[in-house]
Amino acid sequence: MFLNARIYFWILLVFSVFALVMPVVIREKFTDGALIGPESYRSIRIGNMFREGYFSYDSLSYGGKPFVEEKAWYFLISIAPNFMVRLLPLIFGILSFVLFYFLIDKINPELKGISSLLLILSPAYLYLFSTASKYCAAIFFILLGFYFFYKRFRYLSIAAFLISGLFSMITLFFVVLTYLIYGLRKEDLRNFYLLFFGFIILFILQFYIIFKFGLPHTIFSFVNFDINKIFSFVVFGIGGKYGFNFFILILAFIGIYKNFNDKYKYLLIYILLFFGFIISFYMPFLFSYLSFVMAYFASLGLILLFSEQWKSGVFKFFTIVVIFCGILFSFLVFYNQVHNFEPNINYAGGINFLKNKVLDGTVLSDYRLSDYVTYGGERTVIGSDVAYAPNIFERHNDMKVLFNITNIDSALSLIDEYNINYILVDTRMWEEFFDNHEQGLLFLLKYTPNVFVSVFNSSDVNIWYVRDKNYRNL
Description:
Structural class: mainly alpha
Radius of gyration: 24 Å
Largest sheet: 5 strands, mixed
Strand order of the largest sheet: 4-3-5-7-6
Order of helices and strands: HHEEHHHHHHHHHHHHHHHEHEHHEHHEEH
Shape: globular
Oligomer: single chain
Number of domains: 2
Helix content: 55-70%
């Protein structure tokens, strides 16, 4: 079958290395080496903290809160933070590709070549391993666990899954759930019990803080459900920078439909995929996990197009050509956009501006930008790490009020309450909160120069300094 000869494995391996190295090269050339995404900046900051000693309290997030998270990833980063944030994603990306290739060889050997090629061409795969995120390591150990499972190495499989929990407990939870459903179907829950017991032990060891503070008020961020946003988020090029290639998505649906009619062979996977799409809107890292599954199903769909008899051979030929061109085009578009991925060179300038300032206060911005702010060494009013955040819902409501406020006295009251020194607004906030108009807080920032002073201005980020109280009263 296509790309299944041994030589093609080495060609695909070289291609995967090239595909994962290129974003690093592009960012070095066009953005002065700026990392991609807030997770990367979070990793390097926390990694530096662990390098200095054990880190259990984050003095910057929400102005100060307990640090409650899996720590294995940050221990790895702490070896040499500036170097490891670039090296580890590359290593885990290559190893994950190799595991995926041999895993598909166990499941359906005829598809190992084309599945692996489609995986490399997937923007979700490329984005995951272009960012320094704990999910890079988690997905590697998940793939290793499933590989051992198909090799019938029961205890090695469970051990690999449990190691993934040192990087992401939510990832391990989904594996435990999969084992439960699989065990119920096979009427054999022994592996589930072992994995579940290990899950409980790991959870207690890593999140023992719940015995001191109780359960957190929330573990999710402030994303609101919106079916239109979900669709644009899922499909790369429409709204998501790490969504699925549109043509791979279509091929995957064809492959799923084909197998859905084949005695419901993959019913468990269909159920998990459906919930995965919904949950991934709140947990975007799941897009990258699903890219491995979608690459497999897309290869099934592609093989179906090749093998089925068409009434018109010419139409079949042009359909396949269009699909291949579409997949390749999306792959190239990803690299064309890499230098503009957040933070681009202008955005990074704003981050470096904060990093070079010595403040005794807080920066007001959207929660999605909190990792950039804390990387700059400044405190945030609100952030993406919500577990055990103080007065989280009150803060969220106050921020919404402040973004829409037009009364200067009311604005200054909230600014004083949270000791805000700087206000950072990026283009996404401009579009989402202010409809690209000078309204609400944006109006006050521009037309009360005796209170707010513009100190950094680029096409992507604007930063204002809040003058001291005596000056505010002028």
